[in-house]
Here is the input.
Amino acid sequence: MLWTIAGFDPSGGAGVLADTQTFTSYACESVAVATAVTAQRAGRLSQVVPMTGALVSEQWARLAEIAGPPSHVKLGMLATAEIAEVVAGLLAATPPEHVVLDPVLRSSAGPALEVGSGLLEVVRERLLPQVTVVTPNAEEAGRLLGRAAPVAVSDAQSAARALQSQLRTGGTALVTGGSLAVGTRQLAICVATASEDRVIRGARAAGDPHGTGCRFSAALLAALSQGRSIPDAVRSAHRHVAQWIRRPASL
Ligand code: PXL
Here is the structure.
């Protein structure tokens, strides 16, 4: 059973709907805890209303009563420092086998999702040490490290290495996203594991980035839950997202 803790995007482009769709396409069962309700469509996000920390905790508790504590968790938009604190406490109480963090700090659709003050600090101090895989894009990697967003692949690789040292022992940091282009047709996913640095290249699909980060990290968790190695899971998640970008869009 895979868990996603993330925001609700009614269009299903990003957030919990995107995550559960992705899990289903890997034939994984899943449940979802909503952290915020948004009003948006691709390209226009007009409102974000966060849940309370108490409501997030209640959702988690009811699920745990039927499913037991989670073994595989994906964290997406946590929306507020209060929610991130609650989630950090729940993870610490029963540490899951895998926690994949997609550190949503801002929406690609605009400033409406600029997150509550203090969230960055809670993510850095309370969540990163509990995470087994973190998947920032270049901008998020820069914010997490308090440095400029990496532009060159070599800078992204050193950012991944710096983040890896802050994760749960044995964790993996990936710096990913379409901004890390290699020529016009490929992109680089910079991977830092406990034992090595490597760049995995994938096809660069032209298209709307909305929801790609959510789907990448959800696919990664699904592939890891099926026992795949990190490089295999990364390639699989990349292919999954590239195919999704190329889909005939209806919304
Ligand atoms: O892609 C970032 C993101 C994550 N989660 C939710 C969102 C967005 C961007 O709009 O709405 C719920």
Summary: The two ends are 29 Å apart (CA to CA).
